[in-house]
Amino acid sequence: MRTLPLRLSPGQDLRRALEAALATEGVRAAFVLSGVGSLDVAQLRLAGAEAPVALQGPIEILTLAGTLSDQGSHLHAALSLADGRVLGGHVAPGCMVRTTAEVLLAALPEWEFRRMADAATGYRELVIRRRDAAQEPPPR
Question: Which domains does the chain have, with CATH numbers?
């Protein structure tokens, strides 16, 4: 495991920026260890909902957690609204950074995460595989 600290800037899409950082590093599996910051807009899919709800900022990111891969990410966040209410759910694309987002990733170069259909849940679920030694060597 190696750590990858990131600071996202105003206007960046939180989810897409994390996925882009993973691609830049050539990593196929990572976990979010920590994430805090602020958003102008949040797209959060609440438990059991089919589509995300749009929340207008200012919004504070209290926690960010999840998995990242080149085949898709599964991110959850707890967000504090301007009136102090806290909501949590799945982070969808469209969460736009307000002032900053400070995120620490744990990159796992020897592993790859895949998303495959799971008949039991009806969703594309995480499949964890050790990278084949015959494949290209893991990045740095």
Answer: 2-130 (3.30.1330.80)
